[in-house]
Automatic annotation (TrEMBL), chain A:
Domain spans labelled PEP-utilising enzyme mobile: 155-223
PANTHER family, per database record: PHOSPHOENOLPYRUVATE-PROTEIN PHOSPHOTRANSFERASE
Domain Phosphotransferase system enzyme I N-terminal: 9-125
NCBIfam families on file: PTS_I_fam
Location, primary (coarse class): cytoplasm
Subcellular location: Cytoplasm
Keywords, alphabetical: Cytoplasm, Kinase, Magnesium, Metal-binding, Phosphotransferase system, Sugar transport, Transferase, Transport
Transport as UniProt keyword: yes
Official protein name in the record: Phosphoenolpyruvate-protein phosphotransferase
Automatic annotation (TrEMBL), chain B:
Pfam families recorded: PTS-HPr
Protein name as annotated: Phosphocarrier protein HPr
Signal peptide (residue range): none
Presence of keyword Transport: no
PROSITE patterns: PTS_HPR_DOM, PTS_HPR_HIS
Protein species of origin: Conyzicola nivalis
Entry keyword annotation includes Cell division: no
Lineage: Bacteria, Bacillati, Actinomycetota, Actinomycetes, Micrococcales
Amino acid sequence: MSDTAEDLTGVGIGRGLAVGPILRMPEPLPEPTDVTSTIGADAEKVRVAGALAATAADIRLRGQRAGGAAKDVLDAQAFMAEDPTLKDDVDARLAAGKTAERAVYEAFAAFRDLLTSMGGYMGERATDLNDVSQRVVAHLQGVAAPGVPDPSYPFILVARDLAPADTALLDLDKVLALVTSDGGPTSHTAILAREKAIVAVVGAAGALELADDQIVIVDAVAGTVSVAPTEAEQKAAAATIAARAAAADAPVGPGALADGTHVPLLANLGSVDGALPAIEKGAEGVGLFRTEFLFLDADRAPTVEEQQEKYTQLLTAFAGKKVVVRALDAGADKPLSFLNDEPEENPALGLRGLRALRANEPILRDQLTALANADAATDAELWVMAPMVSTVEETRYFTKLARELGIKTAGVMIEVPAAALLADRILPDTDFASIGTNDLTQYTLAADRLLGSVASFQDPWHPAVLRLVGEVGRAGVAVGKPVGICGEAAADPLLAVVLVGLGATSLSMSPAALADVRTELARYTLQQAKEFAEIALSADSAVEARVAVLAAASSLTTNNTESE
Amino acid sequence: MADRSVTIASVNGLHARPASLFVQEVTKSGLAVELTRGEKTMNAASILGLIALGLQHGDEVTLHTDGDDADGVLDGLAAFLGTDHDA
């Protein structure tokens, strides 16, 4: 065994394993020191002009490579590097005797502070300015611009946490695994890892102390990073990786428990492009189709016709299968200026989900109309659900409006504890419920899911969260309505079994998680799943619940093997 | 020398994307163009200046330039600002 004292522990995402050399995400450049230029203002001016032009050209090139929405953002960044007002400011600082590095740093910082003080949308542009500033300074110093490493060999990326801007340009084919020192199971890194089936351990304290090119084993099941694996350990890991790859290629069938109880396994999708890969991985339909992609990057809502075209493509790809579409879910982590641009102290508790749609009913009406039209023109089984429903009254509102506009099956998402507790009143007024475990966990534990400092609370294994899921499951059985799960919890194979034990009738997840969940479900009967649920509910904490169910499950698996 | 007064038509104001497109138009003209709102005058080729000005839908601005084909250039730029780029 390697020196276990040095092994790192965090939260593993998925069930994968990876072995390889690590590369660290470069740290931001240090602030240039404020010393007097030794070469004089004129020479510094020439240096600055060259660095600004080269940086702008480099950013434009990256924009062309990235395409799409990233190109617009990067084009705007290129104009920032070429900005004449900024250049004047830099030149004035050079005339005062500053070095090129310091003058660039100060000029960008001044603009950044100005934008930050304006708040809201302007404040977000401050991040762009920081990025441009770092790139210009790196160019002046002749060092690598901070950014994603791009070596010629596969590697394990180690970072504090990854931002969408970092991952947009990441060559995922070369990334064996992601390890972060900060961030929790719902951080951007974790979501990316689940979506792309990349092995990841997040929140592994001490990860930043690892040296580049050091070989490590990343074990997502155990949530560990072994920092000095022996050759034997590396070989064993490689064998496990090969065995998993073989299992993933095995033929797929519908999701079912050991006793034959059918548990449809559905895909969470965020765009139409994901449809074919999801079907290839054995998705029996779509359990959560996020429609935000149609609205993000847009300054206005798309027209009925524009939406209808996309929905028709989606429903055509899933002909004969169930497709659950979520109405636009804006707010909190995904603000849309045309829905709500009022600054809020607590966006997660603000005008979001169905609340925001209701305040902008024409947008909701357009979306439901486009969906109904697409449904009429295709053969998929379309279900539509409202995000973040809190009350019976909201349920009635949405069901009535959806029916009026021609939606045949309308449901609600249960993400708010109030809705879970009153599921027996809510379900009679709707066709189905789908539990969004990420938000349900956030609201139950009162911990912002985007905030690293409270990430440890964001664990759907928490018995309080499971009890709420159980309430909804029980209500579903009592009124005879389906209860799906469409949060990240369904992608955790053992937790998926517990959720079925609590009454979930279908599970929806990132397509990459389907194979592992399918395998796990097939190991247990419905009775056993219910026993696991009882065990988890009687635990005192998320950690205890996970450990207790794991123990019960492995004793069953051992017994099964012995009896064969 | 030419001047044009124009009202910002974009529903969400001149935020980063339309500002970026506008700067592209100004740069293409090759002329030094000034943009004035109220007391404040700035270089119209400055995306940071434009963003910091926080131009909103309905804001009245004046464009000014000297040089060749000043009228033609300003007609084009005024038309750009007078178009709703959020539509």
